[in-house]
Design goal:
Length: about 180
């Protein structure tokens, strides 16, 4: 990774730790213990989820949120979220695990983007500091970005609690996975 990109990535992580994570903690989320990943560990997975996963128990459900970073030398991120139903109704709803997607994996989950209409174009719709050919990006650019995204926390809350999508949210529904008998 280019030294300038490494510095910008550090600024982005620090900004998220200062602004978004405290906002989520105020909503009752706690940093989940890191999952044990069998060797060999895919370094793209580690780079994609440097902040781990946040978990919140409520009523009979569990909310899970993860911040996923782009892995191709671009300092961009999106937020993945899901509501995990009670264990007694999860018998056929769970999909096979997908390495690298902490808050994904059920038949329905949510993704938060800067522009949900561009979500399919790799990371164009992800949250990032827009580069200008006329000036270098600064730490304050990343601070402003993370403050802006922390302000969208209400959209995340509405999606998790009521399934209501705000302008930055996208619902992803996958077909149910029914295991076959061997």
């Amino acid at each position: 990774m280019h030294p300038e990109n490494a510095k910008a990535r550090r600024w982005l992580i620090e900004g998220l730790q200062r602004h978004l994570l405290p906002s989520l903690v105020q909503q009752g989320f706690k940093l989940a213990p890191s999952e044990t990943i069998a060797a060999p560990v895919d370094r793209r997975y580690v780079r994609a989820f440097p902040l781990g996963e946040l978990v919140r128990a409520r009523e009979s459900r569990v909310d899970r949120v993860s911040i996923q970073f782009a892995t191709h030398d671009r300092n961009a991120f999106r937020i993945n979220a899901r509501v995990e139903p009670p264990k007694e109704i999860m018998n056929h709803e769970r999909l096979p695990p997908v390495p690298g997607f902490l808050a994904r994996g059920l038949s329905e989950h949510f993704e938060m983007y800067a522009s949900p209409k561009l979500w399919a174009w790799f990371t164009w719709g992800w949250f990032s500091v827009r580069r200008s050919p006329f000036r270098a990006t600064t730490q304050s650019d990343y601070e402003n970005l993370t403050k802006l995204v922390a302000g969208f926390e209400r959209e995340l809350e509405l999606a998790l609690r009521e399934g209501i999508l705000g302008p930055h949210m996208r619902r992803v529904s996958l077909p149910y996975y029914v295991p076959t008998k061997s």
